[in-house]
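User: Fold this, then the next.

Assistant: Folding the first:
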Amino acid sequence: MRATHTMRMIRAEASGTEEWACPICGRRMLLQWPPHYSKQILDPGDESATHIGSSTDLPGEEPAPGTPPCDTPRRWLRETGVDPAAPV
């Protein structure tokens, strides 16, 4: 069974680029939201682990200013290989 690590958004730039990081293995990536989707891996961390993402648009949480509509972050995370999940 593969280990599961939860990534967190650690910063967002004015350009809309977000940096996500895994506190367990150090995986780091930059994500760019619509209209110009992109993903850049800065540090692969533990590539054998399954990485899930924690989004700011989950129930009971206020979205960050400029965050895309509710379904978009989750769908984008799935499409880029980071499965969204509720915060731990």
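Now the next one, as you asked:
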Amino acid sequence: MSRSVLVTGGNRGIGLAIARSFASAGDAVTVTYRSGDPPEGLGSVRCDVTDGSSVEAAFEQVEKEQGPVEVLIANAGITRDTLLLRMSEQDFTDVIDTNLTGAYRVAKRALRKMLRAHSGRIVFISSVVGLLGSAGQVNYAASKAGLVGMARSLAREVGSRSITANIVAPGFVESDLTADLSAERRDQILSEIPLGRYASADEVAGVVRWVASAEAAYVTGAVIPVDGGLGMGH
């Protein structure tokens, strides 16, 4: 059965792979984007998750075009990497407001209709960095760790309505960003990953789609790593 799916930050990278994965399974999918161009072949709506009115407008459009959101993938995120002593308060608050508070905004809005339907799937895209920490990413790691507490608290609040809330925590993924790393840095990262390679965005997308599926109806409050073993034990 086709479902109404919304993927925030879905016009590139992992978000786009997730959106395409749901679409290939026959779901009606819309992605949000704040900058750049919308992807072809998918519904799209410009949305800034740091702006409550923008979030409201995006949901209203999605509900009009494909029905109430039944599956929400909270993926939108930014980085402002630098060591803490050099990190401005703006760098910190911008990352928290987008990655963590933005997820709160879209989850809260999606729950309005999910609670009435007594059904729903919410998946927050975190990161292995939120579990392990990373020098130069205090703001990013804090935002991604915060998603774990958010998802687990939400799972306890809405589980009785057959709504699940889970975390998928990717490790290093093949992307334009990792391609720009120096050979030395790439070798260092790979040496720390037991599987000895980066993930593909499609591998992350497959896990996200599974945890939002009927087969995972009894999985909630879970943190599912897709990191090649990098963060095991956390």
